[in-house]
Amino acid sequence: MKSVYQFLGLSYHQLSFYRNSNIGSYSPISDDLRSKLKAFYRAYNQELEKYLGMEFDWE
Fold it and tell me: Exposed, middle or buried by CB within 10 Å (0-12, 13-18, 19+), for 45?
């Protein structure tokens, strides 16, 4: 949450409770589909990282 506050330009304060919203249960995807999605989004993810000036662990 601290990075979200910082991104939004808000002062950080610790909340005593974080409520989970939109909790779902999803079936796992196949390794083949995961590989196809990673390959498809790789260029977009790299462009986003370059734009934001930060790297993400997309694995």
Answer: middle
